[in-house]
Write a structure and sequence with these properties.
Helix content is 78%, strand content 0%. It is mostly helical and 263 residues long. The protein has one domain (3-253). α3 packs antiparallel against α4 and α8 (177-193) runs antiparallel to α9. The chain is globular, with a radius of gyration of 20 Å.
């Protein structure tokens, strides 16, 4: 393996991962139609997701040495729990720091953090695959196959938890455990199905993809409904005026309007 092969492999892996990550980020960024978050804040969220790989990898490495388990158990249960806890803790910090006032705000921050995590993870898998097989095609294939469905991968898992945080922050719900459980459960299901090696894999993975897209659609529609109601009640307009007039006391007391029933 010469230097040119390594450079070509890295270029191919980085190109395909970054391209598909850009599509994912674009998709989730434009969901927030009423009050898009500052790009620099979302960039920090994305970068935080990339850096979240470090504690997640260290934690999984320690557990793999302390606890002997089957590959299925580690991949489908331990891995998802550790990764979602790591991302969730960092997302809580971001949500407390930034101007998150609604479910979609929380979802977008979570999705961007998850996209950063997924981007870094897919790059590592592609690079490791290249060196393990000595094949440029194998490295690019591993990176691209993992990146292709990342819209319903880490960005969705962290987005679901972020949506729960957004609701919790505006007092629309009293607990975030159900969204957190849904994020972990979705992650477990995906990782578990990837371990199937029989003919059942294709129909099972297709079924799961449809289910995950259904969950994503239902949760996003719910969050968008809440934000649309707040927008129609003049919440975002009033908030912007208070910011422009630097009326910090009134801004701090501004309440996100809630509606209990769907139109």
């Amino acid at each position: 393996m010469d230097t040119w092969e390594i450079l070509i492999a890295f270029l191919g892996i980085f190109s395909v991962v970054l391209l598909l990550t850009f599509v994912t980020v674009w998709f989730y960024y434009y969901i927030d139609e009423f009050e898009p978050e500052p790009v620099q804040d979302l960039a920090i969220s994305f970068t935080t997701g990339v850096l979240a790989l470090i504690p997640a990898i260290l934690l999984l490495s320690v557990l793999s040495h302390l606890w002997v388990s089957t590959n299925l158990l580690f991949t489908a249960v331990i891995g998802p729990i550790c990764e979602e806890i790591t991302k969730a803790l960092l997302l809580v910090i971001l949500v407390r720091r930034y101007d998150v006032d609604g479910p979609i705000d929380g979802f977008v921050y979570g999705a961007l953090l998850g996209a950063g995590f997924s981007c870094g993870e897919n790059l590592l898998y592609g690079i490791f695959g290249f060196f393990q097989t000595d094949s440029i095609i194998s490295g690019i294939y591993i990176a691209s196959s993992r990146s292709f469905f990342q819209i319903i991968g880490h960005p969705m898992y962290s987005g679901l938890f972020g949506l729960g945080l957004g609701k919790f922050k505006v007092r629309a719900k009293e607990s975030i455990l159900d969204e957190f459980a849904l994020a972990i459960g979705s992650h477990m299901a995906w990782n578990g199905i990837t371990q199937i090696s029989s003919w059942l894999f294709i129909p099972t993975i297709i079924g799961l993809i449809l289910v995950l897209f259904y969950i994503l659609r239902i949760k996003l529609l719910d969050g968008l409904h809440m934000d649309r109601y707040a927008y129609n009640q003049g919440y975002y307009h009033t908030k912007e005026q208070l910011k422009e007039n630097q009326e910090t006391d009134k801004l701090a007391n501004l309440v996100y309007p809630l509606k209990n029933t769907l139109d």
